[in-house]
Amino acid sequence: KNEVEQSPQNLTAQEGEFITINCSYSVGISALHWLQQHPGGGIVSLFMLSSGKKKHGRLIATINIQEKHSSLHITASHPRDSAVYICAVSRGAQKLVFGQGTRLTINP
Amino acid sequence: DAGVIQSPRHEVTEMGQEVTLRCKPISGHNSLFWYRQTMMRGLELLIYFNNNVPIDDSGMPEDRFSAKMPNASFSTLKIQPSEPRDSAVYFCASSLDRGNEQFFGPGTRLTVL
């Protein structure tokens, strides 16, 4: 079993839909990261959080430390949100352990 | 700031050749990371440096891989000799201080024939 599990692996939705991507981890962590990788391959850090909730534009990330679970939500989804979303955790030092990614496709 | 700079962006080489990938972190960042991404294994940390010192190289696959950071603004990842299974996208990332957000470079797509 991987330390970081994401679900679903693939998600296709229509423009405007509310999107939720889940991430579960099996060890204690110091922080959880959500990354976005576009079809061109570049990776962008979206959020880093260790408790509660963070919001940036239409993106919201939440984390429940007790349940070892995080969610990434996208409101009013748009085709430009189509990308692979990657969850990663860090423990103490900076070493990141990555989930396998969720491929999101938003159709117009 | 130009962000993290990696070169080359694409590299095609033949098995047995030496490959050197280069990375310039964001100015002022003191941590640097090398990652490898493949379809089969996803993203994996190879090695990371803090203040130019290697902290964790447990992800380096074998002795054919080596990484250096001679100064705060430059790092190399070398594969010698290269093998077809080394084909992947190699990302460099940097951050300011421990536990902070990491900024990724555009990656180097390596193909070993």
Explain the overall architecture:
The complex is a heterodimer of chains A (108) and B (113). Chain A is mainly β and 108 residues long. Chain A is built from no helices and 11 strands. In chain A, strands 2, 4, 5, 9, 10 and 11 form a 6-stranded mixed beta sheet that branches. In chain A, strands 1-3-8-7-6 form a 5-stranded antiparallel beta sheet, with no helix packed on it. Chain A starts with a strand and ends with a strand. With 113 residues, chain B is an all-beta fold. Helices cover 0% and strands 55% of the residues of chain B. Chain B has no helices and 11 strands. Chain B is globular, with a radius of gyration of 13 Å. The model of chain B has no long low-confidence stretch (mean pLDDT 93). Classes of the chains: A mainly beta (108), B mainly beta (113).
N-to-C CA distance of chain A: 36 Å
* Run of helices and strands of chain B: EEEEEEEEEEE
CA-atom Rg of chain B in angstroms? 13 Å
Largest sheet of chain B: 7 strands, mixed
Strand content of chain B: over 45%
Key terms for this structure?
A: about 110 residues, 6-stranded mixed beta sheet, B: about 110 residues, mainly beta, 7-stranded mixed beta sheet, 11 strands, about 55% strand
